[in-house]
User: Which sequence fits this backbone?
């Protein structure tokens, strides 16, 4: 099958492409290196079944000719978005361009070139703050508190309308924090970077009690592959996550232990969340995907421990 991975030079997209190529698919990747890197895809450059286009996915005039010239694209995996939520908190236009407009452009190209299948990488951020509730897919009152969550929810709505109007079959996963090799941002990455610069103390945003589930990237990619064939026209939506959550202070403890730093002071900036728009505590209801036969192989703490080791190893 000829497939398009939008945002394939990013952290999750590059792992997904590795799996799709292993399965024998012909993979076309579009990315503009807004956050993704050449390093993430350099091992694929000479692969016979891999083609790369450096383009802005929010520019319809730049993307339409790729659908036309490639022809017969069967499946679009849409992972392009702004993943630096703190940056868009200061400049919402980043989110509108990279998260919402990229969705419109891809859907419009799919409509024009009769592509019927899509995977969309959505997020727990569409739920907003739901303290004390284990959120299920049918949780009412989706009220995102970040521009990122707003543009993802807007993208889901756009996808719903395109799927209905054009008989598309779309798989949407809403997932929490994803970690693993090739990680380029987030709390683990930031803490390791700060401690390498100055191991005498660690500045922690918020009060350290922020707790979220962390899923290992390979677990997520396995789920994308397992559920990629949607039977009926319309949207198939799953929360995809792991058992348990890991607090920010616990992450700091794990990193310090693995770096051999004992009893260094933590300087908390205070407040419940790390920044405005951050959801400090979050818990998923995973009944639907568990009933469909999928479980993550690692829980949240195991995913964190493994990722810390990888981040420490690869940047030495
Ligand atoms: P990432 O930033 O590493 O990957 C996104 C890719 O999209 C990057 O390579 C970036 O360069 C590309 N991109 C962005 N805007 C573009 C544009 N206008 N034109 C072309 N390319 C563009 O992020 P990731 O962590 O791999 O996330 C992949 C997807 O999963 C994103 O849609 C993200 O919102 C979603 N998601 C990620 C997490 C997480 O914790 N990593 C959690 C929930 C959802």
Assistant:
């Amino acid at each position: 099958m000829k497939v398009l991975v939008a945002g394939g030079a990013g952290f999750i997209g590059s792992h997904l492409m590795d799996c799709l190529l292993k399965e024998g698919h012909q993979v076309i990747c579009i990315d503009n290196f807004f956050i993704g890197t050449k390093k993430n895809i350099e091992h694929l450059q000479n692969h016979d079944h891999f083609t790369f286009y450096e383009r802005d996915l929010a520019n319809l005039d730049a993307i339409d000719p790729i659908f036309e010239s490639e022809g017969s694209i069967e499946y679009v995996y849409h992972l392009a978005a702004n993943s630096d939520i703190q940056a868009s908190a200061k400049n919402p236009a980043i989110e509108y361009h990279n998260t919402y407009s990229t969705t419109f452009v891809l859907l419009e190209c799919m409509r024009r070139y009769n592509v019927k299948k899509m995977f969309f990488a959505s997020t727990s951020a569409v739920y907003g703050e739901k303290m004390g509730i284990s959120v299920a897919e049918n949780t009412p009152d989706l009220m995102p508190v970040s521009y990122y969550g707003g543009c993802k929810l807007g993208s889901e709505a756009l996808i719903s309308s395109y799927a209905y109007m054009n008989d598309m079959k779309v798989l949407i996963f809403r997932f929490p924090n994803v970690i693993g090799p090739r990680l380029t941002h987030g709390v683990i990455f930031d803490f390791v970077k700060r401690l390498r610069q100055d191991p005498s103390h660690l500045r922690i945003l918020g009060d350290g009690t922020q707790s979220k589930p962390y899923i290992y990237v390979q677990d997520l990619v396995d789920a994308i592959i397992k559920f990629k064939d949607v039977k009926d026209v319309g949207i198939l939506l799953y929360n995809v996550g792991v058992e348990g959550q890991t607090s920010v202070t616990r992450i700091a403890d794990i990193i310090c232990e693995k770096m051999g730093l004992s009893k260094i002071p933590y300087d908390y900036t205070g407040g419940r969340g790390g920044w405005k728009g951050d959801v400090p505590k979050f818990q998923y209801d995973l009944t639907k995907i568990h009933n469909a036969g999928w479980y993550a192989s690692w829980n949240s703490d195991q995913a964190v421990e493994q990722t810390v080791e990888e981040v420490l190893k690869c940047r030495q």
